[in-house]
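Step 1: inspect the first sequence and its tokens.
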Amino acid sequence: MKFVKYTLLTLLALIVIVLVAGWLYLEPLVKGVVNKFGSQVAGTEVSLAGFSLHPLDGEVEIKGFTVANPKGYTTPNLLSLGGIFVKVDPKSLFSDTIVVENVRITKPELTYEMPDFSTSNVMQLQENVARNTAKKSTPAPKEDKAEDSSAAASKSVVIRKVLVEDGALSALTPLQKDKKPLTLNLPAIEINGIGDGKKNMTIDESIAIVFNKILFNATSVVTKELGNVSDMAQKAANKALDQVKEQVPEGASGLLDKVKFW
């Protein structure tokens, strides 16, 4: 009985050691992902304030994740995330493919800057991501594993579910002459099955999918709002034109019939 007892205790201790080692492995993994996504994919500075591990719940909490604006825009950050809660399958940390059961992103705050109707900070970031994730260059030989900061970030990943909720959006557009940003709600987003059916989806590619969905969502909201503002401006302008027509002499009013603002 003592032998069985000690054997079970030994196995339990080994399991605990393996789980702890797996969770500690997440530190270089998270740092590697942030560094790779920021420097190689987003083309702008990406940072995080910190993260904490919850082994008993199988969760990682990432805090203070921000994406800086591309150069030439007024606000420091394009996107900040209030919190990222990630639940992984611990066993997958030791395999070539990390299985993420779910990701919950709370309180994303996005600043949409459109200096003119041909470009925006969101468009610039999406172009950066598309260009940099499309590159398929041959990786350089590894000289030293200790110096290979992207080793952890190069693993494949499958993400079962992503939920983004409670988002806020500020928009600066050419239609706002007072430079006061529009304050809008960012609708909730749910994405399922990232990496399913695709061989060797990298972590930065999966992150790009999530970010592109958030950015596309923001663009849709801003575009709709601009349409509403444009309609209001058009109605106001036409109303003003009608008032002008009422004030001009009867014979001259026909000169204004062909005037159109849109």
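Step 2: inspect the second sequence and its tokens, then contrast the two.
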Amino acid sequence: MREKICLITGGSDGIGYAASRELARMGARVVIVGRNAAKTQAAVQQIIADTDNPAVEHLLADLSSQREVRRVAAEAMQLVPHLDVLLNNAGAIFLSDRRSAEGIEMTFALNHLSYFLLTNLLLEHLRKAPRARIINVSSCAHESPGKFRLEDLPKPPGNGGYPAYKRSKLCNILFTYELARRLEGENITANALHPGLVRTNIARNNGLLGRVVNFFIGVRGIAPDQGAETPVYLAASPEVEGVTGKYFVDRRPVPSSGMSHDADLAARLWDISASLTAAGDPPTR
């Protein structure tokens, strides 16, 4: 990974932090995107200390806000000459009714629209690399999204809760497959993954209930270092050079749900996402 440049969202904690540290250890220049300034700065300093790699930097943004996604994309393009790896990892569960700055259900806004918008904004920077990789962290939760109506995703009836999380993870895979189709023949691959049930603070935004959820995840979950193995594999391994449009678990491509392979659904999700983010035309050469 020497001379490779990686941008990792949610890199100050959990899977993103573990992946950032490992890629830095491999020699990559790593830019992590975090929301909390003190925490993100501390993560950068710890990674530098652990890896003896000074090429670790950070940008700050609340990725649920489209305005901040646009700002951080512009800052990233000024900071680095190109991107070899974009790891879309930032995500959360919101168990009560929360809305983004644009009035969109928060889980959908952060877990899907931030992936969609940031990726589209950074495509030209990815095209500047000899070969680039886009990696989207999804979940096995995508397999049971419940009632999945595209028109309800931005403003679902009632609270979003865990069903909104499951729908957002299905969106991650639909987006990945559609992106791979649209980038066919280019120098960019796009793959999704399930990292496993990982001991992270994914529900930290939910007060006491969130602490309870995180406790039970901690009891059953694997360590973040283990959860980062598949994202790091997809970012760095020569075994997946040129592999695109796949869903990985434990560093192996596996079948995702039947609904995730609905190309018409994926195309319509793309159109709705583009409309909600004013992301412009689909990526084409």
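Step 3: confirm your contrast with the notes below.
Residues 106-127 form the longest helix (22 residues). The radius of gyration is 17 Å.
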